[in-house]
Design brief:
With 458 residues, the protein is of the alpha/beta class. It has 15 helices and 24 strands. The strands form five sheets. The chain has a six-stranded parallel β-sheet with strand order 3-2-1-4-5-6, sandwiched between helices. The chain has a six-stranded parallel β-sheet with strand order 14-13-12-15-16-17, with helices on both faces. A five-stranded antiparallel β-sheet has the order 7-8-11-9-10.
Length: 458
């Protein structure tokens, strides 16, 4: 597949890394020659320095025979014009645009993005995706990572195992026997910094990060088995009232159950905007690092603090200050993956990675097969892929134990006629089923082969 990626920042670079690693023909376009050079030096991609919306630049990037263009620059307007040029001049069949402005996003529900208006096939909103990720962390405070699958009937949870975990040193095969009715599968384990797909004889140890794929009705039971007490989030302090913080506060106001939230925003105009947009939430204008202001926001009575400013270091320091003032749970928005190693020493409980969230959204529309969802795990080390099984798939009509999965691939769950089933060896995969597969990055091409369909479906 020939893909043009416009924008060589963190998101563009990460997408290029994914696609070039899978032997696609990738060209990166950016008006910053240094970013283009970084991409071509570190990845197997071609690079063009220039403005992505210029037809001559796209021509040099090979737009005449490109299969897809992904416009992921920092400018909404550049991304929109790029897709228009890609459609009108070069007839590129698949166009993905990253849009941030709320005004543009609200237009998704109108006719703005029709082919005869603004021809964008897929709109990706980092702020909206990150807000949903933040809510997911709040609703599962015991997990350091979480993502919903199979129409919200199952979720992937990342659990950090401590010395008090009741199932330490127990082979996973034995866990399956002990809890035969539990619809929960350990699909990934990170130990000493290395992520791997476990085998039935593998044991879990203190310090492991364990990824479990769980039926939504069995989440509480799974947490109990792994020694995690269920906590209900009722009071939240949000540091940062920009696009992401405001989106989270608005979603909290829409929840059926009441969650009391307070927002702290340093910029006065942004604080006023947030106050106007929110009905039940108190907005405080000031610095989230100010202990007096945190106490005014009731940080010692809060169940969690969400640090969602656009600066990683401010988020981390705000989280540390909130913990010092008595908040039991701190979640920080962190763009730079090199800072994640500091989370443990600083006592930050969970993080949200906007780059990984946005990349996951884009990958959903790139994968071959009838893919419904993709979640990138860690630093692009693995993916959780949700896809519909079609008649042309090698999986159709076979039992799970008879399917030739690579070592780094595990079945997390199977949905048949809207009902989520635990994947046993004798479970038959049929056409129309939806499967959720954990795959190490190196095994993703083989997963795509297992999901292969005719070109009409791509």
């Amino acid at each position: 597949m020939k893909v043009i990626i416009c924008g060589a920042g963190q998101v563009g670079w990460q997408i290029a890394r994914h696609l070039s690693g899978e032997r696609n023909d990738v060209t990166v376009v950016d008006n910053n020659p240094d970013l283009v050079r970084r991409a071509t030096d570190t990845l197997d991609v071609q690079g063009i320095a220039g403005f992505a919306s210029y037809p001559d630049v796209l021509q040099r990037a090979g737009a005449r025979d490109a299969d897809m263009i992904i416009a992921a620059t920092h400018s909404d307007e550049v991304n929109m014009v790029t897709c228009q040029v890609a459609h009108s001049v070069f007839a590129i069949p698949r166009k993905v645009a990253r849009l941030r402005s709320r005004s543009y996003l609200e237009a998704i529900y109108s006719d703005l993005y029709r082919r005869d208006h603004m021809p964008i096939d897929v709109v990706i909103s980092p702020e909206r995706e990150v807000a949903q990720a933040a809510l997911g962390r709040l609703m599962s405070p015991q997990a350091f990572d979480t993502e919903m699958f199979l129409d919200g009937k199952a979720q992937l949870m990342g659990l950090r195992l401590d010395d008090h975990c009741p199932v330490l040193n127990t082979p996973l095969r034995q866990l399956t026997d002990l809890f035969s009715t539990l619809r929960s599968i350990v699909v990934g384990v990170r130990r000493d910094g290395r992520l791997f797909a476990p085998e039935p004889g593998d044991q879990l140890f203190a310090g492991d990060d364990c990824y479990c794929f769980v039926h939504h009705e069995d989440v509480d039971r799974t947490l109990d088995i792994f020694g995690k007490s269920k906590k209900r989030t009722e009071r939240v302090v949000i540091v940062g009232g920009g696009n992401v913080g405001l989106a989270v506060a608005q979603e909290l106001e829409r929840l059926d159950r009441r969650v009391r939230a307070k927002v702290i925003e340093l910029d006065r105009k942004a604080a006023e905007r947030a106050a106007d947009a929110l009905e039940k939430t108190i907005v405080l204008n000031g610095d989230g690092l100010d202990a007096a202001l945190l106490n005014e926001a009731g940080i010692e009575r809060a169940d969690a603090v969400l640090c969602l400013t656009d600066d990683d270091k401010t988020n981390m320091l705000s989280a540390v200050r909130a913990k010092a003032e008595g908040c039991p749970m701190a979640i920080a928005l962190i763009n730079d993956p090199s800072l994640l190693a500091l989370m443990g020493p600083l006592g930050i409980d969970a993080h949200i990675n906007p780059r990984a969230t946005t990349v996951s959204s884009i990958l959903r529309h790139i994968r071959h097969g009838r893919v419904r969802g993709v979640y990138s795990i860690g630093d692009a080390e693995a993916e959780m892929i949700e896809a519909e099984v079609l008649s042309t798939s090698p999986m159709a009509g076979r039992q799970v134990r008879d399917i030739d999965f690579p070592e780094g691939v595990l079945v997390g769950g199977v949905m048949k006629d809207g009902v989520v089933k635990k994947p046993t060896g004798t479970l038959r995969i049929d056409e129309g089923d939806v499967v959720a597969l954990f795959a190490m990055t190196k095994d993703v091409p083989e997963v795509e082969r297992l999901l292969q369909v005719s070109i009409d479906f791509f």
